[in-house]
Specification:
510 residues, alpha+beta, Immunoglobulin-like, six-stranded antiparallel β-sheet, 10 strands, 47% helix
C-alpha cells in the first residue's frame, strides 16, 4: 500500500472517530436525541403559600428544589401581586424570597417550576459532605427503648446499610414490640417518621439526614412534602422510605429539602402553610437538551449553528443536506457507474425537488429541458459564439419558466408555480451540454445521461428528505466529518464499476 493511501486512510479514520465521538458526546452527555420527534415528560410543580399578615413589612422565604436524582429545573415562575421577588442563597440552600413594605390579612403567593428528567440514574444527587452527628437527648423510657432497638439491629447487621434496614424492619414489623410502641407513642398517627429513623441512626453513631420531596404524579393537588432518610457511609449514599421500609429513591421523587433547612420562613406574618400541585406535559427532547446546554454554557453549543438567528438556522437545514447529495453522487458515479449530465447537477436538481416535490420536479425538468433543446437546435443554425449562445439559452429558459408559471396559474395547477425554484443558469448550461452531446454522441447518449441525472437526483432527494437524516444533519453536524471521510475513501477506488459487469459479461461467458 502506498504512503499516500496510508495517510488518506489515517485521515479518514481520524475524521470518523472525531465525528462519531462528538455525536456520542452530544447524545449521552448533553441528552440530544438521535431520533426525530422524541419527547420528554415535563412536570409542572406549583407551590401555594398562605399566611396571615400582621399589617407590617413582610418577608417570605421558600426553599427551592435541588437539582439531583436525575431531575433538572427548566423554568421558574412566580405570581405575587404587590411583592418584590428575588432568588437568594442562604446556608448553601437556594431560596425564593418575596418582600413587601406592608401586608395585611390573608396573603396568597404562588411559585411554580418546570422540571424534567435528564438522567436515568436514580441516585445522581449533588455531592454534599456528611452532616455532623448531633447529640441526642432522650428521656426515659425513650432512651432505653431506642438503645434496645439499636442493639438488636446491630447484632443482625454487618454495616451501616444493613443496620438501617434492620431498624426499619423492627419499626414496621406487625405487631410492634414494646420498644417500638414506646417510640411511636410520640406520633399522632402512630407511624414511623423520617425524623425518628434519623434520630435512631444518630444514636447508633451514623451520619444521616432527612430529605423531603414530592412524588411526581399527574393531577395531584394539595400535597405536602414526603420525608425520606439519607444515610452516609464514606462515599456511599443510601436512601430509605421509613413507612414502606423500601431502599432507594423512587424514580419520580423530586428532592426539595435536605437536612435541617427550613421549607418556609415568614417574617411579619403567622399561620403559614405550603401546598403543592403537580401536572405533567410533554416537550421536545431536543428543545430541552438545547436549553440545558445553553444554560450550562457548553462550548460545543455556544459555537454552533444554534447560536445563529432563526432565519439562518432554517437556511442551514437545507445547506447541511448537500453533503448527503454529494455522497450519493460519488457512490453512484464511482461504484455503480451511472453517467450523469454534469458532475453535481443532480444535487441542484434534488434541492429543487425538495421545494417542488419529486414528481412535479421531474415533470418541470423534462418540459423545460425538452423545449430548451428544441430551441437550442434552432439557435445552432445561426452560428453564434459560445457566450452569446449560452446567454440566449438563459433568456429562453427564463421565458419557458415564465410561460409555465402563467399557464399553470390560469389552469389552477399551483404546484407548477414552483418552477422558479429550479436554478436557471444550471438548466441553461445543462441544455447546452446536452445539445452538444446530441451532436457529438447522438440521442442515445443524451437519453442515458439525462435519465442517469434524474435517477441520481431522485435518490438524493429521497435521502435528503428523510426525516431521520434531516434530524441528524442539523442537530449533529459533526457527522459531516464522517461523510467527508467516506468521500475521501471512495475517491481512492480505481476498480471496476458495477455497471461494467454488464459490459464484460460476454467475456465471462466465453
Amino acid at each position: 500500500m502506498r504512503t499516500s493511501q496510508v495517510q488518506l486512510y489515517l485521515i479518514a479514520l481520524l475524521l470518523i472517530l472525531l465525528g462519531l465521538g462528538m455525536t456520542l458526546y452530544k447524545h449521552f452527555a448533553l441528552d440530544f436525541p438521535l431520533l426525530p420527534g422524541q419527547t420528554r415528560q415535563v412536570w409542572t410543580v406549583e407551590a401555594q403559600l398562605r399566611f396571615q399578615a400582621a399589617g407590617e413589612p413582610a418577608t417570605v422565604s421558600l426553599a427551592r428544589p435541588l437539582s439531583g436524582n436525575g431531575y433538572e429545573v427548566l423554568r421558574e415562575n412566580y405570581a405575587s401581586s404587590g411583592y418584590g421577588f428575588s432568588l437568594a442563597e442562604r446556608n448553601r440552600q437556594q431560596r425564593a424570597e418575596w418582600t413587601t413594605r406592608q401586608a395585611d390579612g390573608e396573603q396568597i403567593l404562588y411559585y411554580s417550576l418546570q422540571v424534567s428528567r435528564f438522567d436515568d440514574s436514580p441516585t445522581d444527587i449533588a455531592a454534599t459532605p456528611a452532616p455532623e452527628i448531633p447529640r441526642i437527648d432522650l428521656d426515659e423510657p425513650l432512651l432505653t427503648a431506642a438503645q434496645a432497638l439499636i442493639d438488636e439491629a446491630r447484632s443482625h447487621s454487618a454495616d451501616p446499610r444493613s443496620l438501617a434496614i434492620q431498624l426499619l424492619q423492627q419499626l414496621n414489623s406487625p405487631p410492634p414490640s414494646q420498644e417500638v410502641r414506646i417510640l411511636l407513642a410520640r406520633n399522632s398517627d402512630q407511624q414511623v417518621s423520617a425524623e425518628q429513623l434519623v434520630e435512631l441512626l444518630h444514636l447508633a453513631g451514623l451520619p444521616a439526614q432527612v430529605i423531603k420531596g414530592l412524588l411526581l404524579e399527574d393531577g395531584r393537588r394539595n400535597l405536602q412534602l414526603e420525608g425520606m432518610v439519607e444515610l452516609f457511609d464514606d462515599d456511599q449514599r443510601y436512601f430509605f422510605d421509613p413507612r414502606s421500609s423500601r431502599e432507594g429513591l423512587p424514580d419520580n421523587f423530586l428532592i426539595w429539602q435536605r437536612g435541617q433547612v427550613s421549607l418556609l420562613d415568614v417574617v411579619g406574618g403567622r399561620d403559614s402553610s405550603v401546598n403543592f400541585s403537580i401536572s405533567a406535559s410533554s416537550a421536545s427532547a431536543r428543545t430541552l437538551a438545547l436549553r440545558s446546554a445553553k444554560a450550562e454554557k457548553v462550548a460545543l453549543i455556544d459555537f454552533s449553528i444554534y447560536t445563529l438567528p432563526i432565519a439562518d438556522q432554517n437556511a442551514f437545514k437545507t445547506i447541511l443536506l448537500v453533503p448527503i447529495g454529494t455522497l450519493v453522487v460519488v457512490f453512484l458515479r464511482i461504484i455503480i457507474g451511472i453517467r450523469t449530465s454534469g458532475t453535481f447537477m443532480p444535487i441542484l436538481m434534488a434541492l429543487a425537488f425538495i421545494q417542488t416535490t419529486l414528481l412535479t420536479g421531474i415533470l418541470i425538468f423534462l418540459i423545460v429541458v425538452s423545449i430548451g433543446l428544441w430551441i437550442r437546435s434552432a439557435l445552432s443554425n445561426l452560428n453564434l459564439l459560445l457566450v452569446a449562445r449560452i446567454s440566449s439559452v438563459v433568456i429562453v429558459v427564463i421565458g419557458i419558466m415564465s410561460g409555465l408559471s402563467i399557464i399553470s396559474f390560469k389552469l389552477g395547477l399551483e404546484q407548477i408555480l414552483t418552477v422558479t425554484f429550479f436554478p436557471m443558469i444550471i438548466l441553461s448550461w445543462t441544455i447546452e451540454r446536452m445539445s452538444i452531446l446530441w451532436e457529438e454522441e447522438g440521442a442515445r447518449e443524451v437519453l442515458i445521461q439525462g435519465s442517469g441525472s434524474l435517477l441520481v437526483a431522485s435518490l438524493a432527494y429521497l435521502l435528503m428528505t428523510n426525516q431521520l437524516i434531516e434530524h441528524l444533519t442539523f442537530n449533529f453536524p459533526e457527522l459531516l466529518l464522517v461523510i467527508l471521510a467516506f468521500n475521501l475513501m471512495l475517491g481512492q477506488y480505481t476498480g471496476y464499476r458495477l455497471s461494467e459487469l454488464v459490459r464484460f459479461a460476454p467475456m465471462v461467458k466465453r
